[in-house]
Amino acid sequence: MTYHHNATSYTGVRITALAAATALSTLFGTHTATAAQTVVKWMHVETVPAYIKTWEDIAKKYETQHPDVDIQLQFLENEAFKAKLPTLLQSDAAPDFFYSWGGGVLRQQSQTGALMDLTEAMNANGGEWAKTYKPAAVAGLTFDDKIYAVPYRMGTVSFFYNKELFAKAGVKAEDIKTWDDFLGAVKTLKGAGIAPIAGGGGDKWPLHFYWSFLVMRNGGEAVFEAAKNKEGEGFMHPAVIKAGEQLAELGKLQPFQNGYLGANWPQTLGAFGDGRAAMLLGFENTEPNQRKNAGDGKGLAADNIGRFGFPIVEGGAGKATDTLGGLNGWGVSKNASPAAVDFLRFLTSQEMERQMASEGMIIPAAVDAEEGLKNPLMRESADQLAASTWHQNFFDQDLGPSVGRVVNDVSVEILAGQMTAEEGAQAIQDATELE
């Protein structure tokens, strides 16, 4: 899940190399479009200008080697991307390939017939292409034995904290091992006059991480898989209800910054980067993203940011080594050109993924590309993934769009005291049964 502020559409203004060279040159870099015969439309969400420049540079490198191809990049704001993509995929304006969070959303897209089946291409020559990625990455983008996306990145959600604010309040991150320890740290920070957590209730999904992790820590993989597959007690399992009760307990402490219910994700990153909250539950690339969204454009110094995993729940079935995060890839439209597929192979090659890792953009899905990681916090995330006993894709993606929306809504409402744990579990169970 990466996010951008500049919404466009293929039927409207396209952010192309030519546009970048004119009105948007300062943001997107310069890049002169050729009189290409084959246009490849690449649709993405992004926030960091330096990363966007990297995308442009990679496209330019490919175009130099293939002068008959014009790669056209387009960026949509996150929610607009999710809202418009289903319609675009069923139209003549469909992108050749697009960013995917995998899970139930990708599965649903595959069932509509909108996607290209990449199985034959990736398994040709003894699986030469498929073997360039970590097996878990390919498996996570495979449904009914068919590969529907090209692996790109893996990620994990964890807590990031402001070392100076922790020191001011006398909180030690290494002492936060259990959920009770975490609640204790929240109380201590509040007592020191510090907002404990930056929260993004406006976008809703940032707060579903809390509910998801608590379900994982209480119930473990068996409970979640049973619920997802409509087995046993489903989301009415006692472990799931307990997770909701713990979430409500956190909400009663009023742990977030003022106005959190209206804050979108960039604003949430900004609150953390401005030092207005001590913690953020976020992605592996939090350190560069908080810089970009901070009021001064600089944010917290890298050495002032620490990181720790989501705490365990004492007596719960989940392990501290169970991780929650992304498995992202590039979905390919059914009518995409061979040039688009060839460019995707180039984009996700070990060389390109190593470059992106070295720039702190991703934890790569390509085999052995993580050696390029230089950012210590990113390296910690990569090491946590390497030791993961269960890596779960984001709940709102894995459960599909309709159930995912309910999960996000419920998470916010429980935290805000507008819904009980039982009501939330029932709402998710009802949505699952309608699938």
Automatic annotation (TrEMBL):
Name the record gives this protein: Raffinose/stachyose/melibiose transport system substrate-binding protein
Major subcellular site: periplasm
Signal peptide: 1-35
Compartments, record wording: Periplasm
Domain of life: Bacteria
Pfam families found in the cross-reference section: SBP_bac_1
Family in the record: Belongs to the bacterial solute-binding protein 1 family.
Organism encoding this protein: Rhizobium soli
Keywords: Periplasm, Signal
InterPro entries the record matches: Bact_solute-bd_prot1 (IPR050490), SBP (IPR006059)
GO cellular component: periplasmic space
